[in-house]
Design brief:
The chain is built from 14 helices and 12 strands. With about 450 residues, the chain is of the alpha+beta class. The two termini are about 55 Å apart. The mean pLDDT is about 90. It has 3 domains: about 110 residues, Trigger factor ribosome-binding domain (Alpha-Beta Plaits, 2-Layer Sandwich), CATH 3.30.70.1050; about 100 residues, Chitinase A, domain 3; about 170 residues, Trigger factor, C-terminal domain (Trigger factor, domain 2). Strands 6, 7, 8, 9, 10 and 11 form a 6-stranded antiparallel β-sheet that branches.
């Protein structure tokens, strides 16, 4: 086999491959022999038909099978002999193929970037010295109480902490809001809408203007939509709402007693508090770990520069765009609004995809150097968990994964997680005051903006 290689791009190579006619003929003869053993021809028992008759009837099929097997096999050998690490699938262009002649074809393939690893052990990270306080526990218990709150209709004026049930119509610049923002149908008109009378509830400044209102009252509520309002067309503009108060409801919270504790699966109020404290501690631990990992990953990405395979980045960009669109739809953002933001979405997706792809190549190299591996048992366990999560029978989920080549994706995901954990365990961590860290993060965010 003769292979010549041309650099098409920093991470793309063109392989011109030539295989001697003798090797092609050997593959043809072996395949013809397999056909001879398997085919059935009238008057002959299976496998007993003369070779000449088999060739006469099946030669085109034999040639197609030889080509199907030989081209990818030769391509893989060419990669191995030339120590090329391919990513993705090659573009194969056939130049010549047939009996008695050399096989010649071109394969254009993207390859993994060549780069030297930066120092990845002892990366610096700052972590807040956080502990769960009594105030944190009380706040969390308050959230649990809110979930069991009861609302009773009262015949009095609304006050802070109440719920006002209202009917309203909204205008902006003298026109129904929907004319200014077609996606904001819910802000144009609502019936029996519950407004929590609390600071910044609903639209900032709206609920405060309902204090003192009672059933049957009418109010004109004027607000200024915040600059970062979710509906961009309304940001910074004034909205006027004609509001009819249908009801005033008083909220009552349950006591933290035995019944309340048991409703959340705890043996007693004391055990409930212990459980809440433990959950908060675990949340702090998880956040600390995420913060450290984000810091060391950023340092790694900043420490080395190399070209990325365009095809891999494009494929990852499509994945990120899909995720962003899905998240927006789940938040209730309409198709029109998503379409209006498609340029920003694509730009953000491209930047995110480049970071993911770059990190994946770095992680892979660290895994090779540190001999970090994913065991088959770990892979099986993750696949089983994913099947349970999607509520799909394991056998069907595995078949679907294999069909679309998804097993390697799960493997890479597990490998990346192991490498990130390795980086965290080997990081040099500085414990700092939470306020100091928050101030530093805010300053960094301001500088970036």
């Amino acid at each position: 086999m003769n292979v010549t290689i041309e650099n098409v791009a920093p991470c793309k190579r063109l392989l011109r491959i030539e295989v001697p006619a003798q090797e092609v003929d050997t593959a043809f003869n072996n395949t013809a022999q397999e056909f001879q053993k398997q085919v059935r021809l009238p008057g002959f028992r299976p496998g007993k038909a003369p070779r000449a008759m088999v060739l006469k009837k099946f030669e085109p099929d034999i040639l197609a099978e030889v080509k199907r097997r030989l081209v990818p096999d030769i391509y893989r050998k060419a990669l191995k002999e030339n120590k090329l690490s391919a990513v993705g699938y090659p573009e194969i262009e056939e130049v010549q193929f047939g009996k008695g002649v050399p096989l010649m074809f071109n394969a254009t393939v993207e390859i993994a970037p060549d780069f030297s690893l930066p120092e990845y052990k002892g990366l610096a990270a700052r972590a807040a010295r956080n502990e769960v306080s009594e105030e944190d526990v009380e706040k969390a218990l308050g959230i649990l109480r809110d979930r069991q709150a009861k609302y009773e209709t009262v015949d009095r004026e609304a006050k802070e902490g109440d719920i006002a049930v209202v009917n309203y119509t909204g205008t902006c610049e003298g026109k129904p809001i929907i004319e200014t923002a077609p996606t904001a149908k819910g802000l144009t008109e609502q019936k029996n809408f519950w407004v929590n009378i609390a600071k910044d509830s609903f639209i900032p400044g709206f609920s405060e203007q309902l204090v003192g209102a009672k059933k049957g009252d009418k109010r004109t509520v004027t607000v200024t939509f915040p600059p970062d309002f979710v509906t961009a067309a309304l940001a910074g503009k004034e909205g006027v709402f004609d509001v009819d108060v249908a009801e005033v409801k008083e909220r009552s919270l349950p006591a933290i007693d035995q019944a309340f504790a048991e409703s959340y699966g705890a043996e007693s109020p004391e055990k409930l508090r212990e459980g809440v404290r433990e959950d908060l501690a675990n949340e702090l631990k998880s956040k600390r770990s995420r913060d450290i990992r984000n810091q060391v990953i950023k340092q790694l990405l900043d420490a080395v520069t190399f070209e990325l395979p365009e095809g891999v980045v494009s494929a990852e960009t499509r994945n990120v765009v899909y995720q962003i669109v899905q998240e927006n739809q789940q938040r209730g953002v309409g198709k029109e609004a998503i379409e209006q933001q498609k340029d920003q979405i694509y730009s953000a997706a491209t930047a995110g995809a480049k970071e993911r792809v770059k990190a994946a190549f770095i992680f892979r190299k660290i895994a090779e150097k540190e001999n970090i591996k994913v065991e088959q048992q770990e892979l099986n366990m993750r696949v089983h968990l994913m099947a349970q999560q999607y509520q799909i029978p394991v056998e069907k989920f595995v078949k679907d994964l294999e069909k679309r080549g998804g097993v390697s994706e799960v493997y890479d995901q597990l490998m990346n997680e192991k490498v990130i954990k390795f980086l965290e365990e080997n990081a040099k961590i500085e414990e700092v005051d939470p306020q100091e860290l928050a101030a530093a993060e805010a300053a960094a965010a301001g500088a970036k903006a």
